[in-house]
Amino acid sequence: MQSAFRAIERREQVKIFYRVQWIENKKVAALSVSKPVGEFFATEMNRLRLGYSFLYDGKYVVVFKGKDPRVQGNYGVANGVPSVQVIEQSAQAETLTLRGKVIDAVSGEPIPGATVFDDEDQKGATTNIEGEFVLRLTHGMHSIRVNAVGRSQVARSINLEDDMNYDFEVFERTTELENVTITSEGMNRNVASVGMSQVKIDIKTLKSMPPFVGEVDIVRGLLLLPGVSTVGEGSAGFNVRGGNVDQNLILLDDVPLFNSSHLFGFFSTFNPDMVKDVMLYKGGMPANFGGRISSVLDVKLRDGNESKFSSSGGIGFISSRLLIEGPIGEKTTFIAGGRYAYPNWALRRVPDLNVSQSSTSFYDVNFRLRHKFNDRNTVSLSLYRSQDDFKFAADTTYGWNTTNASLVWRTTLTEKLVGNLNVIYSKFANKVTGLKPTYEFDAGFGIDTREVKAELTYFSHASNRVDFGGSYTNYVFNPGSLLPGEGSSLNPVTLQRDYGTEQGFYFSDELKLNERITVNAGIRYSRYINFGSGEVFLYDPSAPMHPSTIQDTLKFGEGEAIRAYDGWEPRFSAKINIDDQSSVKLSFNRNMQYLQLISNTSAISPLDLWKTSNYHIKPQSGIQVAGGYFRNFFQNRLESSVELYYKRTHNIVEYKNGANLFLNPFLESELLNAEGMAYGAEFFLRRNLGKLTGWVSYTYSRAFVRTTGESEEETINNGEYYPSNFDKPHNTSFVGNYAFTRRLSLSANFTYSTGRPITYPTSVYVIDGYSFAQFTERNQARIPDYHRLDLAFTVEETLRKTRKWKGSWTFSIYNVYGRKNAYSVFFKPQYTGSQTQSYRLAVVGTIFPSITYNFRIL
Amino acid sequence: MKRALILFFLIVLSGCIDPIKLEIDEGAGTLVVDGLITDQPGPYTIKVSRSINFDNSRQLRVYAVPESGAILRITDNTGFSETLVERKPGEYETLALQGSVGKSYQLTIQTSNGESYVSGSETMYPAPPVERIEQEFKVYDRLFISANGSPRVTKMEGFYIYAVVNDPADAENFYRWQSDGIFEYFSITDFSHIKQCWAPLNRLEDKLILADDVFTNGQTMRQFVCVVPYDRPTMFLVKLRQQSLSREAYEFWQRSASQQTSTGSLFDPPPAPVYGNVRSEADPNVKALGYFGVSAIAKFDLLMNRFKESGLVEPAPHKTPKGGDCRVHEIEGTNIKPEGF
User: Fold this and answer.
1) What percent of chain B is helix, strand and coil (3-state, nearest 5)?
2) In chain B, what residues touch A392 (CB-CB under 8 Å)?
3) In chain B, at which end, N or C, are there fewer CB atoms within 10 A of the end residue's CB?
4) pTM, full prediction
5) What is the largest CA-CA distance in chain A?
6) Which ipTM score applies to this complex?
7) Alpha-carbon separation of residue A405 from A248, A334, B51 (angstroms)
8) Using one digit for the tens of pLDDT, what is the confidence trace for A49-78?
9) Which residues in chain B are contacts of A445 at CB distance < 8 A?
10) Minimum-distance CB partner of A601 among B4, B149, B266
11) Calpha distance B330→B333 (Å, rounded)
12) B58 CB contacts (<8 Å, ≥6 apart)?
């Protein structure tokens, strides 16, 4: 033990005071020396029935006799001998308030979601988005432990004599000692929190995953989680628990995104350097989220460094990144980051005129400014712009862009009441320009939203939390226009704009009934109005909708309501602890959705159209029931969970066979009303501590669709349930990161899933000399199974804290064994008149190695 | 609209298209109707067959089973009616029927096993005239999917042919274009042999060429119809036929055409059943494949001097003439000057 103490003193630059006779001939449990000091003392001293205390920011450790004593007083350190008074446990029940912040010691950024736990009173709190926490504690000495994702644990002794402010600084674990023990957020959050079907990934984990062509990508990382899937490699968006891509609410700093992909879906529009963390709600959505029925992806951006200017960036094959951040004065910080992609050099090398004359590029820029008026009021401004351009051969150019802005005011109204007010603007637009002689045109679609949102949280007492608030959103949909160029033989087309407003109000209460049971019950009420000006076609109700069955046209004036919808959205979740290490959770939620992406292809593209619910298109709704068993092992080092869910969705949009969706004023006549059903079981095992971290997951899930039309034209597969495009029953993934040394780490991903459903031809026939295949039932066959292994090595150039420039190299290999995974199976004749052939197309059908250099300048 | 993206995907990201063997044993035996009544002189042929299993492991190219012994009858809206005569197995010909614009026609089929099918009533719409044909000489890349499935790009020279049509503003119009050609060629020979010949080149374009006037109503349309290969510096006769289609026929061909352009990209719409206008009389849910079509036809021929039009200084490269009687060098070669030359 003595030698262990000496080792710790050397390594940690601390001084430990103790009496030799207390620890003579006492052995240290193996391994525990390599733990952080806090944990070492917590386990070892407890075992030896000794007390201890950290003093002066942990620079001194005082060891004393007797289990669980209270330490108090003036720590005279005269002559290296502490005078320690051991007193009886205070009988005082007076509660005092300890409030403060958890901040990153290097960047000065606040750390939300950190747990602050007092060992004495056995009470804890989680920091809010500003890194703030409030603890109500008894008078006297307290041993406070702070845990945050990716940070080493911090333990402090605090003598609470009055209400007090205390800020905790935590270090990133890489700047820590060797063989750090990684502590995850809230250690036992998996088991102890009431929320289920939620996965939080910190950006560090995402960054350690093997990137595709050197690009760290959030959506690609999400696809490795249970319950998240995609129709195919490189397709935009993701599917959560059998939901469509447009049923995900994607929030970038609280601003909804209507397109989350660059380059048709190969990359997502989140700059990884800007991202703080990513939270995915697959179910059990809190009541403050609304508007989409499948999931919420909440991407939070970082605040700028509060203490000094710094910069970071990366250089890759396809794109480069640069970020700068720092303080402006004492109360303001800024952070600005951008990415630019230059894949054209690669296209030039393709020996095909169509491709070598094509060009593409994209960029995205984030800017965030935060001003702290005082301890209670903060305002932040967030701006975002992303743009993609794509020119195919010499005849068509495509472009799409997103412009977002948000202003957030966070305030602590009283000790118990905190809130935020957001003003949000989000715009998505795409544009197609035809350059073909005599067919020149400009066509564009878009969606414009403006939103005001207020959210309040009231901590009525330690075991009860109330959330309430509301939002008001205004939408303008531009369903498209076509403007012919000069000399073009095309006629101009302008479809009428659609207007809508959405209002939502919510209230929820999280109540800790007793030590074991916590419930969160909430309700959201949403209301949507589609209003004019506009025209609505009335179709013959006895026949399928078709331009030829229009009987009348309704005209609506400006601001006049065309159709209003509303819905109640109950949200409920409960947690029952079985013991410290395990719990059972249940949840139920209903969600409404008043807008949809119109796309009849297997994968969505950024050229698809967002359409409002209107006179003919009813709002989508979905309910989900889920239950799960959560268990942690080895002091929360290993988390595991099993979740079961069942989902029903109504009024989802399907398409008539051969639907024409491009600039169609009779769009509703091409759409079908459908309902969905999905169920599944998700198994998840995650290790957050040690040299090897990562997770293993297995999911069994099914997703079906059924059209509910009356006539044959209005149904698919005779109105029976058929597998959805992304119904992939078996799904397994492994994500691992192994740190050999502090500078060298290896990460690996493996993923396997059943092939997605496709429609196979049942027979072939010939007409007019052409051979065709006959397709009947949709999605009754599958493409071959998908599996892939990726590897990445990361080498840090230096670990010294004093170095201004810190670089790292990432060498990665995507699709290590070069499997030609089927992206699709399709059917076409090899040449005119020949028999229809079946082909397998693999998109990333080869090994993709890449190198990226990342740097930080402090 | 997304077609460009698809091609982009195919070329840049794949290089990995493999044929796969599939054998699907269901759905065969559906009745297939393939026929067209036009405003040109008859007789008109209606082909009736049955679909066969999808089985690409079989090398033998049999893709239609002729349906013999059926009774086909065409009736028009004036009360004229005629029973067709089976000339070859599964091929039925009209006798006196002469199609004309404005009339509507209906086909009934009684198969030898007693099934009755009936088509919808198809009206013949007028075909607006082809104003002129324009051509552009181009060096272009052509993407071939070779037998093993890998895409191969070949540089080719040829003339892009465009039909220029003044679309009538007073009606919705649907078009289909088909083009055939006749080329002139020579042999290197003495006077003992025939050295100037002509031979047909049918179906200059592999794909269905269709258009509607949704975005171009009342405008002058310039539609790509085919490519004339520049393989010899000789004369070439383009024989263009422009068909008028009903909306239903257009939608049928449009859906069929989507099979030809499928690339396997996820931006393709899902494959869907393509049924035409022929259904079982007893059960309207039993549908035949194919289409009983009625079209007016506008013809336009263009004789072009390929060397002159190419603007090239030298005619090379091209197929070099062979020796001897030129008639045997090409399929259906003839020394009788075809009409139009």
Assistant:
1) 10, 45, 45
2) 4-5, 7-8
3) C
4) 0.77
5) 105
6) 0.87
7) 20, 15, 58
8) 777 777 665 667 777 765 444 443 333 333
9) none
10) B266
11) 5
12) none
